[in-house]
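Regression test case RT-17, inverse folding.

Input:
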């Protein structure tokens, strides 16, 4: 297959490498010509995925028109809040008969509160779209650590195609038709990862983390079902699978943000220290909080993470409020 990866971040780079090794003709596009030239010369992405060699046959391109020319798969890997800008640049060159979209970003756009599939259709019109999501840190995929993800599309043939082009001896792809649930699972787990990081920063221990993950899945399922997702999806790879890895891993940027908050650092300084590295959960928390309010869904963890990030609430006060809420049954109807 001819595949173009739109974004030279860590995840886009790791997947470009995987697809090259699977025998496909792959182009990696980035918006900054100087950095693309540097990557081409060094055969390494030192900013976002250092110490991982880029395949010699991987084409690096900063001209979008050249990058997407011809019949090919387009892999959208830019962070959610930048996706609309990339898609707007892509629109003059996008051809529905020639191009299929695979999105691997995980978030909800601020202001519009749209998922990536909705943004793609709003900008590009009707298009063949697939969401690829699951517990899959770029750093580990680049090192060929065994990984399983899910490919969700309304077009079964596109899900089957994604399974075939990505799957190899260390990367396994399952299929799904629940685009809404898979996208929301990938987005909302980043909010829970910030909460998990706060627990780590406050040195609270394993009991607290286990409770957070379990109730986080219940909350994500409740909101996801209200927005049209299948509750069973949140028990799968894009739900509990992705939440476990993001809440527990040292690779997680969102957990890192939470850990710094739990240790007393202010959000503004944390983001400055992270530089160009994006933690999707910070922006997604705002969108998730607004979606929960609009749909009248009780989401206490999301509410408290929002208060910490956007209202400067002390994490200890947020924790106390969560623990002293009115008592209720564990299992409720969604």
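Golden output:
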């Amino acid at each position: 297959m001819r595949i173009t990866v739109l974004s030279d971040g860590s995840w886009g780079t790791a997947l470009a490498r995987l697809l090259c090794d699977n025998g496909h003709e792959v182009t990696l596009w980035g918006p900054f010509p100087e950095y693309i030239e540097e990557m081409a010369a060094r055969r390494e992405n030192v900013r976002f995925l250092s110490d991982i060699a880029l395949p010699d046959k991987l084409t690096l391109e900063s001209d979008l028109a050249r990058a997407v020319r011809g019949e090919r798969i387009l892999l959208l890997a830019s962070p959610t809040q930048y996706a609309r800008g990339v898609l707007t640049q892509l629109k003059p060159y996008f051809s529905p008969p020639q191009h299929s979209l695979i999105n691997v970003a995980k978030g909800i756009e601020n202001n519009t509160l749209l998922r990536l599939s909705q943004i793609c259709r709003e900008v590009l019109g009707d298009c063949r779209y697939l969401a690829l999501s699951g517990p899959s840190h770029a750093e580990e995929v680049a090192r060929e650590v065994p990984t399983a993800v899910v490919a969700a599309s309304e077009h079964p043939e596109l899900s089957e195609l994604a399974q075939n082009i990505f799957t190899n001896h260390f990367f396994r792809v399952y299929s799904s038709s629940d685009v809404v649930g898979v996208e929301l699972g990938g987005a909302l787990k980043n909010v829970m990862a910030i909460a998990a990081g706060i627990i780590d920063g406050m040195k609270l221990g394993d009991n607290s983390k286990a409770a957070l993950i379990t109730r986080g899945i219940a909350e994500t399922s409740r909101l996801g079902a209200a927005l049209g997702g299948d509750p069973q999806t949140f028990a799968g790879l894009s739900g509990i699978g992705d939440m476990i890895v993001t809440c527990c891993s040292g690779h997680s940027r969102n957990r890192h943000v939470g850990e710094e908050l739990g240790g007393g650092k202010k959000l503004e300084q944390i983001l400055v220290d992270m530089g160009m590295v994006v933690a999707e959960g910070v922006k997604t928390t705002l969108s998730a909080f607004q979606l929960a309010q609009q749909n009248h869904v009780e989401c206490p963890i999301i509410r408290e993470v929002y208060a910490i990030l956007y209202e400067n609430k002390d994490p200890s006060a947020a924790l106390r409020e969560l623990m002293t809420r009115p008592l209720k049954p564990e299992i409720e109807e969604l």
